[in-house]
Prior knowledge:
Layout lengths: L2 E5 L5 H4 L7 E4 L7 E4 L15 E4 L9 H6 L4 E2 L6 H16 L2 H9 L5 H11 L12 E5 L3 H12 L3 E5 L5 H6 L5 E2 L3 H7 L2 E4 L13 H4 L6 E5 L8 H10 L2 E6 L12 E3 L8 H21 L20 E8 L4 H11 L3 E10 L2 E9 L4 H8 L4 E7 L4
Parallel strand pairs: 1-2, 1-3, 3-4, 4-5, 6-7, 6-9, 7-8, 9-10, 10-11, 11-12
Antiparallel strand pairs: 13-15, 13-16, 14-15
Amino acid sequence: MGFRILTLNNISVRGLERLPRDRYEVSSQIGEPHAVLLRSADMHSMPIPESVLAVARAGAGTNNIPVAALARRGVPVFNAPGANANAVKELVLAGLFLAARNICQAWAFARDLSGTDEAIDAAVEKGKGGYAGFELPGRTLGVIGLGAVGVQVCNSAEALGMKVLGYDPQITVQRAWQLSSSVQQALSLDDLFARSDLLSVHVPLLPATRGLVNAARLNLMRPGGVILNFARAPIVVEGDVVAALDSGHLHAYICDFPTQALKNHPRAITLPHLGASTLEAEDNCAVMAAETLREFLEHGNIRNCVNFPEAVLPRQPGSQRIAIANSNIPNMVGQISTCLASAGLNIAELLNRSLGEFAITLLDAEGAADEALLSRLRRIDGVLSARLVQPQE
C-alpha cells in the first residue's frame, strides 16, 4: 500500500528523503491525501479531506493547525519538539549580547556618521559613552520553560558565567537530566521575576501563558531589566512592556515579533521571526516530522503528538495491527475486545494510552481483520477513527 502526502510548504529535501518513493507519493498538488506535511501554512481556513489520517508540522508550534478539531476526528497532529532548539538557543544568546552591549543602537549610530574620517573619529569619541553596556558574568538570567530550548539556554548562559534560575512545574525527567545541576529552581513566577536581571521565556502559547509577562510581574524585576521573547508574541503584554521601556524600568526588550509599537522603539530590538531560521533547523525539523509521520502511517505508533498520547507498541509477528483513536471513557477497551472476539480474532498484544479526553488503542490481532470489522469498531460510541495498519514487511 502506498501513502499520499500533501505538502503545504517547501519541505527540506533531507526530510522528504525519509519517505521512500516506492511507498510514498509526495506533492503540493495531490488528491485525497493520507497525511499533510507543513511548516507555517495556515490550515484553519482550508478544508481538510476526510482521507487525512495525520498532520505533521516540521516545527514546534502548532498554532497554524486546528488541533482540537482534528482530535475530534481522531487525527493526530505531530510536531518536531527540540529539532530547532540549538537554532533558537543561539539567537537567544545573541539577544543577550545585543541587549547588554547596546549593539544595535550603537551600530545605527555608527552608520549615521558622516564627514571625513577625522570628523567620524571625533563623533565616535563624543558619542560612544551613550552606548556603554554591561557584562553578563555575575548577572542572573531567569528562564521560564525548561523544555528543549529552555534547558539549552540555561546551560549555555551558565557557561558564560551567569547565574541561572529556572521555572517549569512540568519539567520532564529527560529535561531534568539534561539541565546543569547549578541551575537554581525558582519557587514561582513571581520569585523568578524578582530575582532576575534578564529573563527569557520558552513556553508554548496557551490560555495559561497568554499575558504571562505583564505589568505586575515586570514591576517585580530589578530596575534595568531585560526581557527576551523568542517563543510567541502574546506571551508578553506588549503595552505593559512598552510602558516599562518608556519609564526606564526595563533596559531592553528583545523579541522575534515586530509590531508598530515596537519596531522603532529605541529600547526594543525586533527580529523577523528568525528563531528557527537556519538550514540546519529546517533539515532537523523536516527529518523528525517525516520520521514521526512514517512511524504512524506504517505502524500506528505515536510520538511527538500534541493532541494524543504517546503510544508505541512493538509489532507481533504474524499479526494484523489495528490502530484506534477514541474518547477517554470507561469500558472502551472492553467494547473493542468484545468486538474482536465476536469476529473470531484473538488479541496478541494491546496498548491503551490516554491524554485528557482522548486515547489511543493499538492492538495486534491474530486472524483475518477486514473492513467489516473496522466498520463495527467505528460504530462503537466514542471511537473516533479505526484503521487496519498495513502488514509489517
